[in-house]
Design brief:
Chain A: Belongs to the SKP1 family. Chain A: Keywords: Ubl conjugation pathway. Chain A: It comes from Protea cynaroides. The structure holds 2 protein chains of 2 kinds. Chain A is mainly α. Chain A has a domain of about 100 residues: Potassium Channel Kv1.1, Chain A (2-Layer Sandwich). Chain A has 9 helices and 3 strands. Chain A has a 3-stranded mixed beta sheet. Chain A is flat. By secondary structure, chain B is α+β, with helices and mostly antiparallel strands. Chain B has 3 domains: about 100 residues, no CATH class; about 60 residues, no CATH class; about 170 residues, no CATH class. Helices cover about 20% and strands about 30% of the residues of chain B. In chain B, strands 9-8-11-12-13-14-15-10 form an 8-stranded antiparallel beta sheet. Chain B has a 4-stranded antiparallel beta sheet with strand order 3-4-1-6. A 3-stranded mixed beta sheet of chain B has the order 2-5-7. In chain B, a hairpin with a 4-residue loop joins strand 11 and strand 12. In chain B, helix 4 runs antiparallel to helix 5 and helix 6 crosses helix 7. The longest helix of chain B has 11 residues. The N terminus of chain B is likely disordered. Classes of the chains: A mainly alpha, B alpha+beta. Chains A and B meet through helix 2, helix 6, helix 7, helix 8 and helix 9 of A and helix 3 and helix 4 of B.
């Protein structure tokens, strides 16, 4: 494993260090590295110094990882396993422990407020870190799904800025959709 | 001068990170472009560029760098992008909008730039990433949260995502749809009530059928079939077709058969169908099936007596059927090979005229 160090500069001009293997968790960084576009420090003007360490933490955990996070997405069960002829029960157990440990780590990792959530999502999107993007987007979606507009406002700490007339109109739309929804 | 334009790529393409604006103009411009690019995994891109242009200059081109590995053809990509150039003060011509694949960039004079600044409030871009994951009800709830969320929710892209989930063939139409995707989705989300409308007498030439068939969750058939084609139907049957199909095809009531070529296979017992109809004379749309299950009847499977048909769907008081015509291939285990789709409006519509009269009555939104 290569332990080349990569330097990343945040929007507010702070420099952070990351192992190349970890940096490769980001498609964007990986392409910059592979494309030979690396001259010293990689500036990341979309990512602030509040968020960048958080991103690096994720990359360190997932750099060189090939697939454990995917298994989490499948509910921790690898369907293909069952049909493999040389199915190894011990290996499967160890894999399960790894997946459980990663899940626990992700739970702790994802414990932050919603402004961090936005910034982290955008950083993951910009740096093309699929696992982190999925994680953050899914968290945001879960704060919306099945909730009323009031509950969503509360979750995201938003105040309604509609005029009273607009509010009234909104209530009508809301009722109509509640009554008439035929899909999903 | 501020140039601002935006594009959408159709479905599921991941655009990421880089934009490179290049100025190529006969005059050497003292040009400074500061791009502001924001793009999401779902394919929405918006670019604001500050361009310092002399009066006669024009913006030579804008290149986009895509990282998506699935995109192999640059040409195919650029066709997916449509640009609307917002006029600011005067018209600016964009001569070309070229789409680069990352591999192509090697050897080009510019590098992937990181000098990209987000000028939109962060949360807007974050919402554009999250919204495609929501269903219609949640999206409406979001639009009631505040003005910013409403404005974003009004973007037709998210509604297109929802429409395409329900009717994948909807983006295969060569003519523009009569309504925005949002209007379409909201219209069809309302339960149909029997309603009589006075509108011109229908003809098959005025109809397009958007037909989608799923084998469990996998889409196996997704096409727009012109009414005139459906009306013509097929008379040619493969030699090995079962007695049951022959009986069905020979029965007296009116049915419309579409040949399926190439054939598709069905592996599960859960087959579902959606059919949207667009009438071109009044530019209105209606659906007759919305992911309805086709019932699989069997007699001693894997004999040839399988039967796929969808009866239990009642719209405006009539009973349309979708019927799959297939042969069972025994070569590699029993495989159901579908070679035709039958659309049948039941015994109440025993003629072409009967079918058109029924279609006339459904709820054209």
């Amino acid at each position: 494993m290569s332990s080349t160090k990569i330097f990343l500069k945040s929007s507010d001009d702070k420099t952070f260090e990351i192992d190349e293997t970890a940096a490769r968790a980001s498609e964007t960084l990986k392409n910059i590295i592979d494309g030979g576009c690396l001259d010293g420090v990689i500036p990341l003007p979309n990512v602030s110094s509040n968020i960048l360490p958080k991103v690096i933490e994720y990359c360190k955990k997932h750099g060189g990882d090939n697939g454990s996070s995917k298994k989490i997405a499948n509910g921790g069960v690898d369907k293909d396993k069952e049909i493999l002829p040389d199915y190894d029960e011990e290996e499967d157990k160890r894999e399960k422990v790894r997946v459980d440990e990663l899940k626990k780590w992700e739970e702790e990792y994802m414990d932050f407020d919603q402004q961090v959530l936005y910034d982290l999502m955008l950083a993951a999107n910009y740096l093309h870190i699929k696992g982190l993007l999925d994680l953050t987007v899914e968290k945001a979606a879960s704060m919306i799904r099945g909730r009323t507009p009031d509950q969503i406002r509360e979750n995201f700490n938003i105040n309604s800025d509609f005029t009273p007339e607009e509010e009234e109109e909104m209530i009508l739309i809301e009722d109509e959709w509640d009554d008439e929804w035929a899909f999903d | 001068m501020m140039v601002s334009f935006e594009g959408y790529s159709d479905g599921g393409i991941s655009l990421q990170g880089f934009v490179q604006a290049s100025i190529s103009s006969p005059q050497s411009l003292s040009t400074h472009i500061e791009e502001s690019l924001s793009c999401c995994a779902n394919g929405f891109i918006k670019i604001n560029a500050n361009v310092d242009l002399t009066p006669k200059a024009s913006l030579g081109g804008i290149g986009f760098v895509f990282q998506n590995r699935q995109v192999t053809s640059v040409r195919a990509m650029s066709e997916l992008l449509r640009f609307n150039l917002a006029k600011i003060g005067k018209t600016l011509a964009i001569r070309y909008a070229k789409v680069y694949h990352l591999d192509e960039l090697k050897g080009l004079p510019f590098r992937p730039v990181c000098s990209v600044k987000l000028r939109m409030p962060h949360s807007s871009e974050a919402l554009r990433i999250v919204f495609p994951l929501l269903n219609g009800t949640d999206l409406v709830s979001c639009m009631l949260v505040c003005k910013q969320w409403r404005d974003i929710g009004e973007e037709d892209y998210f509604w297109k995502c929802l429409c395409v989930k329900h009717w994948p063939s909807i983006c295969k139409s060569s003519t523009p749809l009569p309504r925005s995707y949002r209007e379409l989705f909201q219209m069809f989300s309302k339960r149909c009530r029997p309603r009589l409308h006075s509108c011109p007498i229908l003809s098959f030439d005025d109809l397009d059928f958007y037909i989608d068939i799923w084998d469990e969750e996998k889409i196996v058939f997704s096409e727009v079939i012109p009414g005139s084609f459906l009306q013509g139907g097929t008379k040619d049957l493969p030699p090995r077709v079962s007695e049951r199909h022959k009986n069905y095809l020979n029965s007296s009531h009116y049915k419309m058969i579409i040949p399926v070529d190439p054939k598709f296979c069905i592996f599960s017992e859960t087959v579902s169908v959606s059919i949207l109809i667009c009438r071109k004379d009044t530019n209105k749309m209606a659906y007759i099936f919305q992911k309805s299950k086709l019932i699989l009847l069997y007699e001693g499977y894997p004999s040839n007596n399988l039967d796929f048909g969808s009866p239990i769907e009642e719209i405006s008081g009539f009973l349309p059927w979708v019927y799959l015509l297939f042969i069972v291939d025994e070569d590699d285990g029993p495989v159901v090979n579908v070679f035709g789709i039958g659309l049948d409006f039941g015994r109440d519509a025993a003629s072409e005229f009967g079918v058109l009269s029924l279609l006339q009555m459904i709820d054209w939104g």
